[in-house]
Design goal:
The complex is a heterodimer. By secondary structure, chain A is α/β, with parallel strands linked by helices. Chain A has 18 helices and 13 strands. Classes of the chains: A alpha/beta, B mainly alpha. Chain A: Belongs to the bacterial solute-binding protein 1 family.
Chain lengths: 411, 316
C-alpha cells in the first residue's frame, strides 16, 4: 500500500532512527558507567531499586528520591522469582543499589556477605518494634529496615456473628465454641491456611508461639496442644478439610463468599475486603489458650543496601533507605499499602486513626520475627512445621506423632 | 592386489606435483567434516555437558546462598547423599516417582493407542477432532494445572458438582493423601494423551492397507488383525513412545507443584519436586543436586534403552 502521508512515514522512520541512536548511546553510557567503577559525579545521583511490589509502590519511592536527590531506576520482580534473581545477581556482582527483601530472607542473604551493615550509614532501628530489629539483625549488625510491617489477626463476619449471638472469641475454648456454633449449611465457622508452604507455617505460628511452643523443638507438649487445637477445629467440622490446600488468598475468598464466618488473615487483604459488597467485617487479635496477648509472626519487607563496591552510591542508597524508614514516611507508606508503621509511637497513633488495622497494631507490638531464633536455619524449621500440620490434618498421624515425625526427619 | 599396493604406496610417492593437492583436498575434507560436527559438539558440551558435570560436583559441596556471593563451596564428600538417602521424604519420593511414571505411561499409552486406532477410521470431523485433541498439549502446563486445581476442588470444584448430580458425595481429590497422587496422575495422563495419540497415529499411517486386505481374505479381522498386523508393524514406534514418555514423566515438576505442591503431607512428592524443594526453598543446593543426580541416573538408563531401540529400528 502506498503511504498516504509520506512526511509522516519519514518522520516515523527518522524517529525510530533517533530512538535506535539513543539506545546505542545509553548502552555506551551504561558500559562506561560500569567500567569507571567509582564514578562519583555521574553515578552518585542514580539509584537502582529492586523489589517484588507493583507500580503502586512507586510514589513512595519518588518522595524519598526527591528528598535525597536521586534519579531512580525501579525494577519490580515477580515475588517468587526475587531470591533466585538476587542469588544470580550476587554471583555476577550486579546487585541493585537498594534491595527489598521479605524479612525472613534478610539474614539468609546477609549471611552470604552480599549486604552492607546499615550502621555504616548511621542508621538504626531504634524506636521500631523490637521484632523488626531482630528480624533484620544478623550477628549483631543491622542489615535491613522495614518502614511498615504486618501480622495476622482473626477477621470475623459481623452479621453472621450477630445472627448466631456470638461475640468475638479471646480464648481457644471460646474460638472452638464460636466456630462450632457458626458452622451451618455451606458455611464453616472458621478458616485458615494450612497449605504446605511457608504460608501454612506462618498461619500456624500464632497458635504455636502463643502457647509457649518453640521452633527449635516442635516435639513438645506446647506444640502438641496447639496442633491438637487446630485438628479439633477440623474434626468438629468447623474448619474445612480443604484448608490444607488453601493459600491465604483462598482463605480470603472463602470469607468474602460467606463460606467462612471467621478467618485468620493479614491487613494486606483489607483493600479486597473493603471492595466486597455488603460484607461487614472486623478483626481481633488471634485468640490464645489462656486469653493472654498473642505471639504472632512479624511480616513485611525490609530495605537493604547491597555491597556494590561503589562507596558513593552505597552512601546515597543508605540515605534513601533512611528516608523510607523515617516515622513520617512510614505513615505515608502505611496508608498506601494497608500495613502498620514499625515505629512504636507512629503505629500507636496509626491504630487510633485507622480502626481497621488496630488489631494488627496490637499484634505487631508483641510479634516475633521468624528468623529471630534460628537465623538462616529458619527455612528447615518452617518446612518441619507445615509438614507436621499436614500430617495431622490429613489424618496420617496424631498431632503428637506428627510433630515427633516432623521434628526427627531431615527435610 | 595392485589396488591395495597402490593405496599403501600413495603417501610415499606423494612427491609428484598432483599428489600434494590431493592430500590437501583430503585433509580439507576431513576438516570440513569436523567443522560440521563442531557446532553440535560445542552445543552439547556447553549446554548439556557443563550443567551435568557442574551438578555432579555441586552434589559433593556445601553449596548455599553464601556460595553465590563468595564463590566458596567447601567439599563435603558424600554428606549430601547421606542426607538425601537418610531423609524420610526420599523414600516416599522414590515410590511416588515410580507410581507416577508407571501410572501415567501405561494409561497415556492405552488411551493414546485407542484414540489413534479410532481416528484411523474415516468419519466426518475426524481431522477437526484430532486437531482439538492436541489442545492439552498446546496449553502452558502451569495454566493447565491451575485450571485442574479449580476443577478438582473438594467444595466448589466442577468435577464434584457434576458427580453430585448423581448423588456422589464430595470426593477430596487433592485433599486426601491417598487420593492426591491418583488425581495428579490423572491430570498428567490427560496431558500426555495428545503426544501418544499423535505419534502412534503417524505410526499407524505407515502400515500398508494391503496387508489388511490380504489378511481379511485369510479371515483375520478385528483383534486378530490388530495382533498379527498392526501391533508388529508399530512395535518400534511403541517402544520409542514409551521410553520418551518415561524420560518426560520422570522430570515432571510443574504439574505437581501447580496442583498440590508435593502435598498434602508429602503424598505427591517425587524426586523432581524434592530436588526443587531442597534447592530453591530450603536453599540447600548441594542436597538438591544430589537428589537430581539420582534422577539423572535413572533417566540415563532409559535414554540408553531409547538409543538401543532407535538403532535397532534403523537397522531393521
Amino acid at each position: 500500500m502506498k503511504p498516504r502521508f509520506p512526511e509522516h512515514t519519514r518522520s516515523r522512520r527518522l524517529r525510530s532512527l533517533v530512538g535506535a541512536g539513543a539506545m546505542v548511546a545509553t548502552a555506551a553510557l551504561v558500559l562506561t558507567g560500569c567500567s569507571s567503577g567509582g564514578g562519583s559525579s555521574a553515578g552518585g545521583s542514580k539509584l537502582t531499586i529492586e523489589d517484588y511490589y507493583t507500580a503502586t509502590y512507586n510514589p513512595n519511592y519518588n518522595v524519598c528520591a526527591k528528598k535525597v536527590g536521586a534519579t531512580l531506576t525501579i525494577n519490580h520482580v515477580a515475588g517468587a522469582g526475587l531470591i533466585a534473581k538476587v542469588l544470580q545477581q550476587a554471583s555476577s556482582r550486579t546487585l541493585p543499589d537498594v534491595l527489598m527483601l521479605d524479612n525472613p530472607d534478610v539474614q539468609q542473604i546477609a549471611s552470604s556477605g552480599a549486604l552492607s551493615p546499615l550502621s555504616d550509614y548511621g542508621l538504626s532501628a531504634d524506636g521500631d518494634v523490637p521484632a523488626v530489629k531482630a528480624a533484620n539483625t544478623y550477628k549483631g549488625k543491622l542489615y535491613g529496615l522495614q518502614p511498615v510491617t504486618n501480622s495476622i489477626a482473626l477477621y470475623y463476619n459481623k452479621k453472621l456473628l450477630q445472627d448466631a449471638g456470638v461475640t468475638p472469641p479471646k480464648t481457644w475454648d471460646e474460638l472452638r465454641a464460636a466456630a462450632k456454633k457458626l458452622t451451618t449449611g455451606k458455611t464453616y465457622g472458621f478458616a485458615m491456611s494450612n497449605i504446605n508452604t511457608y504460608e501454612g507455617t506462618w498461619q500456624f505460628l500464632p497458635f504455636l508461639w502463643s502457647n509457649g511452643g518453640d521452633e527449635k523443638n516442635i516435639d513438645s507438649t506446647e506444640a502438641t496442644q496447639a496442633l491438637s487445637f487446630v485438628n479439633d477445629l477440623q474434626s468438629d467440622g468447623s474448619l474445612s478439610k480443604s484448608s490444607i490446600n488453601w493459600a491465604q488468598a483462598d482463605v480470603n475468598t472463602q470469607f468474602i463468599a460467606g463460606k467462612a464466618a471467621m478467618m485468620i488473615n493479614g491487613p494486606w487483604q483489607l483493600p479486597t475486603l473493603n471492595a466486597a459488597k455488603g460484607l461487614e467485617f472486623d478483626s481481633v487479635p488471634i485468640p490464645t489458650r489462656t486469653g493472654s496477648a498473642p505471639v504472632a509472626p512479624l511480616g513485611g519487607e525490609a530495605f537493604t543496601v547491597p555491597q556494590t563496591k561503589n562507596a558513593a552510591t552505597m552512601k546515597l542508597a543508605g540515605k534513601f533507605v533512611g528516608c523510607l524508614n523515617a516515622a513520617k514516611m512510614q505513615t505515608v507508606i502505611a496508608k498506601n499499602t494497608g500495613n502498620v508503621p514499625t515505629n512504636i509511637t507512629a503505629s500507636e497513633a496509626w491504630g487510633k486513626t485507622h480502626p481497621q488495622v488496630s488489631s494488627f497494631v496490637t499484634t505487631v507490638q508483641t510479634a516475633r520475627a521468624r528468623t529471630g531464633e534460628l537465623g538462616p536455619d529458619w527455612p528447615k524449621a518452617a518446612t518441619k512445621i507445615y509438614t507436621a500440620v499436614q500430617l495431622a490434618l490429613t489424618g496420617k498421624a496424631s498431632p503428637a506423632d506428627a510433630l515427633k515425625q516432623a521434628q526427627s526427619q531431615n527435610q | 592386489m595392485s589396488v591395495s599396493v597402490q593405496t599403501r604406496v600413495r603417501p610415499e610417492t606423494a612427491l609428484t606435483p598432483i599428489r600434494p593437492g590431493q592430500r590437501r583436498a583430503r585433509m580439507m575434507l576431513g576438516m570440513t567434516r569436523w567443522l560440521f560436527v563442531t557446532p553440535a559438539v560445542v552445543f552439547v558440551a556447553v549446554f548439556f555437558g557443563y550443567p551435568v558435570v557442574k551438578n555432579v560436583i555441586m552434589s559433593f559441596q556445601d553449596y548455599t546462598t553464601k556460595t553465590f556471593f563468595t564463590g566458596e563451596a567447601p567439599w563435603v564428600g558424600f554428606a549430601n547423599y547421606a542426607a538425601t538417602f537418610g531423609s524420610a521424604v526420599f523414600a516416599t519420593s522414590v515410590v511416588n516417582t515410580a507410581l507416577f511414571t508407571a501410572g501415567s505411561i501405561i494409561m497415556q499409552f492405552v488411551i493414546g493407542l485407542g484414540l489413534a486406532l479410532f481416528f484411523r477410521r474415516n468419519f466426518p470431523l475426524s481431522g477437526f477432532l484430532r486437531g482439538l485433541l492436541l489442545l492439552p498439549w498446546l496449553l502452558p502446563l502451569i495454566a493447565s494445572s491451575a485450571v485442574w486445581k479449580w476443577l478438582l476442588d473438594q467444595d466448589s470444584g466442577a468435577l464434584n458438582q457434576f458427580l453430585g448430580i448423581f448423588g456422589v458425595p464430595a470426593i477430596p481429590w487433592l485433599v486426601s493423601p491417598s487420593l492426591a497422587l491418583v488425581a495428579v496422575i490423572g491430570v498428567n495422563i490427560w496431558l500426555g494423551i495428545p503426544f501418544n495419540t499423535t505419534i502412534l497415529y503417524s505410526g499407524l499411517q505407515s502400515v500398508p492397507p494391503e496387508l489388511y486386505e490380504a489378511a481379511s481374505l485369510d479371515g483375520a479381522t478385528g483383534w486378530k488383525a490388530f495382533w498379527n498386523i498392526t501391533w508388529p508393524s508399530i512395535r518400534s514406534v511403541v517402544s520409542v513412545v514409551i521410553v520418551l514418555g518415561v524420560v518426560y514423566t520422570l522430570k515432571v515438576v510443574d504439574i505437581i507443584l501447580g496442583l498440590t505442591g508435593g502435598g498434602p503431607a508429602n503424598s505427591t512428592q517425587t524426586l523432581a519436586t524434592n530436588a526443587y524443594h531442597q534447592s530453591f526453598i530450603n536453599f540447600q543446593f548441594g542436597i538438591g543436586a544430589a537428589v537430581s543426580n539420582v534422577l539423572i541416573l535413572v533417566s540415563f538408563v532409559f535414554a540408553m534403552i531409547y538409543l538401543a531401540i532407535s538403532r535397532k529400528a534403523v537397522d531393521e
